[in-house]
Write a structure and sequence with these properties.
The structure is a single chain. By secondary structure, the chain is α/β, with parallel strands linked by helices. It has 15 helices and 9 strands. The longest helix is centred in the first third of the chain and has 16 residues, at 29-44.
């Protein structure tokens, strides 16, 4: 049954996805990762796309229980970069050969519609970068303005498809289906969309993770980010159990089998769980790396907020070092923007 499911050409049912996520035979699991890698090669090729992240603000107006940026975390040293600082960093990343930048923050409406539009316009005037916004849920009119200003993509993780869990983890202030509605609207506007979930949340079940994969498939997203739960200091979940590394890698592998032509990143958090975490993910279905271009002193604050009392990985490995590591995997750095692999976006 296992081999029949991983080699099935039709869409997997939720029951089949649950079966793969629960599969634990160590003598057989390598076939799952091998199959995920084969599908990755078939739909994505051997190129690895770099998506540079710029965390330009760590303020947030939300109070999610799992997040170090939560508004009630008074221990966090907050920062905001100016529009000019943001534009300068993005231009420098472009000069280094980065083709995609992710402008990321908490939900921080200090950066209003016009400020973000100005930043987008300036970036587009001076670079040929693809720009992804990851600013949390914002107003529909804001999405429209930012698309007109040049934004190419929007990343809005749904975090968990279990609406009851979502409501609990967001302190009851956000409806479970709100982000899904936003993602559908963003797609209608022409954004390349990304979503994803947190793996290993307290009280999360395998069935919940299967629902995350099914939802990502139904939304037909262009990128899906599956991040391991890593408890953050000074949050209500700080003493909860960290995500199991094998479960995180298994989720990425099954996601590749389910989603096929969707960009899947090997996230930095995997290296917290295993020093070779991202490398293992790249051999198990992932095709994207996301180096962090947040400059000092903001980068140090970013590291401290996420990885307090934990070993943190190198955020900023030079590209030639990444290339050498990829060559050992039989992979190479892609020089294109890593646009959507969906037919709807390939037809111009």
């Amino acid at each position: 049954m296992f081999h029949e499911i991983i080699n099935k050409e039709e869409d997997l049912s939720k029951e089949e996805i649950v079966y793969l996520l629960k599969f634990s035979d160590k003598n057989e699991l390598h076939f799952l990762y091998q199959r995920a890698d084969e599908i990755r090669r078939q739909f994505c090729g051997d190129g690895i796309h770099l998506r540079g992240i710029l965390d330009f603000s760590n303020y947030c107006e939300q109070n999610c229980l799992y997040c170090s940026l939560r508004e009630e975390n008074i221990s966090l040293e907050r920062y905001r970069m100016t529009p000019e600082q943001i534009i300068e960093v993005v231009r420098a990343a472009s000069a280094q050969g980065i083709r995609t930048i992710i402008l990321q923050s908490g939900k921080d409406t200090y950066y209003d519609t016009d400020v973000i539009a100005y930043i987008l316009y300036q970036i587009k005037q001076s670079t040929d970068l693809a720009v992804t916004l990851s600013l949390g849920p914002r107003g529909f009119d804001e999405y429209k303005a930012w698309k007109m200003a040049g934004a190419d993509r929007y990343l809005l993780k749904h975090e968990t498809a279990n609406s009851e869990l979502f409501t609990y983890f967001t302190d009851g202030l956000i409806r479970g289906n709100e982000r899904i509605q936003h993602l559908r609207f963003l797609k209608r506007l022409g954004f390349q969309t990304g979503t994803g979930s947190i793996i290993g949340l307290p009280n999360q079940t395998i069935e919940d993770i299967a629902d995350d994969l099914v939802l990502s498939r139904e939304l037909d997203v262009d990128m899906a980010v599956f991040s391991p739960f890593i408890p953050s200091a000074f949050t209500p979940l700080q003493n909860m159990q960290i995500c199991n590394f094998d479960e995180a890698i298994k989720t990425i592998a099954v996601a590749r089998i389910v989603l096929k032509n969707c960009h899947l990143p090997a996230v930095t958090g995997l290296d917290i769980l295993n020093k070779a975490g991202r490398e293992i993910a790249l051999k198990s279905g992932a095709n994207v790396l996301m180096p962090n271009f947040t400059p000092e002193p903001f980068l140090t604050k970013k590291r401290l907020q996420n990885f307090s009392n934990k070993r943190y990985p190198d955020y900023t490995s030079p590209q030639h070092e990444i290339s050498v590591k990829l060559e050992r995997l039989g992979r190479f750095l892609s020089i294109d923007r890593g646009d959507s692999l969906k037919k709807s976006h390939l037809v111009k």
